[in-house]
Every structure is written in structure tokens, then in C-alpha cells.
Amino acid sequence: MKLHNNTTIDDDLVRRLITKAGRAAGARTNGVVVFVNQGSGYRSSGVAHRCDMVRIYNGKRSRRASRGRWNRTDGGYFVIRMPRTAIDGTGNPFPDPVDQATNFFRVAVHEFAHIRDYQSIRAGERLDWSRKINGRRPAHSVRPEEERAFATVAECCDHGDAETRACHEIVDLAIALEEKARA
Predict the structure, then answer these.
(1) Max Cα separation, the chain?
(2) What is the pTM of this model?
(3) What is the per-residue pLDDT for 94?
């Protein structure tokens, strides 16, 4: 996995947590490019992209033709945002850093489920994808690719023991988020 961590959290900690999330989702993590950015909200969010190569310049995606170098990917890349932490009661829906770290892990599993779909397409498997109906895409929660990703998160995190296997990394991330909030 090629990790581009644009946060102040330790690279090794983020790499271990994201690798465990990829294994929990059943994806190959070797050639996947992951960008970790600092978000402005209290929740983690992410987006996965299907591609063969991505251009990288100074740890960020580059859209300029003359800059950066091409990195080959295995199925695609995804961008995930680290939540900001506020210890005081300022309307934070996740006041506990452990909840924020668990949410980050669940979002990483969700995005790796999309990467697993992209990898299986490359292997020749036929999957159901959403289509436009009357020029409009269906709602996000009822798209077949999202239902597969939601089912993977439910299977791994709600009914499985993926969070138990990654509990040390989740607690370490929670400690790092709390230290960052107190600084």
C-alpha cells in the first residue's frame, strides 16, 4: 500500500490501521494508493476511485500534466479524511476520541470494500452497478455498490470481530487524536 499521510498523526499507526481495515474488507492492499487528509468535521469521510494509475506530486494528487510521477494501482485509490477532535462540549456528535477512531476504521473498511469491487472487476467478475433512471442517479443508500459496501461493514464490524482484531490500533489512534486536541 502506498500511503500519503497529510496529517500530524504517525504514519506507522495510520498504515497499520488502514491495512487491517483492508484485510477485514477482503481486499488486496498491496497496490492501493491511500491519501489521508485532515478533515474539518467531526466525522471521517472518504471516496474511492477506480483507476490503473494515479499521478502524485509532493504527496498530493496532481492534475498538471508536467508535474509528478505516475504510480500504478491495484484497483484504484481512495481519499479518507481524519476527523478533527474537540474535547469540550461544542456540539461534537462524537465527543469520545475512541468513537472517532472507530468511525475512521469503519470508513476505511467501507472504502476498501469499493476497492475490492474494483479489483474483482479487473479479475473478470460481473457485478451489479447503479444506472441512471430518467437521467438521474438513484439515491446513495440504494445503489448496489453502496449496499455491498454497507453489508461488508456490517459483516466485519457489527457481526464480526474486525474491530476486536484492530482494537490496539483504534485505541492508539484515539490517544493520538486526543493528544492532538489538547495541543
Answers:
(1) 52
(2) 0.86
(3) 58
Identify which has the larger pLDDT, 19 or 159: 19
Distance of CA 172 to the CA centre of its chain: 18
Q: Do the Cβ atoms of 131 and 44 come closer than 8 Å?
A: no
Per domain, the residue ranges of the chain are 2-182
Residue 181's nearest CA partner among 87, 43, 81 is 87
Please write the tens of the pLDDT for every residue from 73-92: 888 889 999 987 766 656 55
Where are the extended beta strands (E) located within 59-135? 60-61, 69-72, 77-82
Copy the grid coordinates of residue 180.
492532538
- Dihedral of CA 17/18/21/22: which sign? negative
Classify strands 33-38 and 2-5 as parallel, antiparallel or unpaired. parallel
Catalogue the E-assigned strands of 17-68: 33-38, 45-49, 53-57, 60-61
Q: Percent of the chain at pLDDT above 70?
A: 87
Count the residues in the chain: 183
Of 140, 128, 117, residue with least CA distance to 50: 117
Q: In angstroms, how far is the first alpha carbon of the chain from the final one?
A: 30
What is the identity of the amino acid at 10? Answer: D
Given a contact cutoff of 8 angstroms between Cβ atoms, the answer to whether 173 and 9 are in contact is yes
- Answer yes or no: are the C-beta atoms of 4 and 30 closer than 8 Å: no
Write the DSSP symbol of residue 2.
E
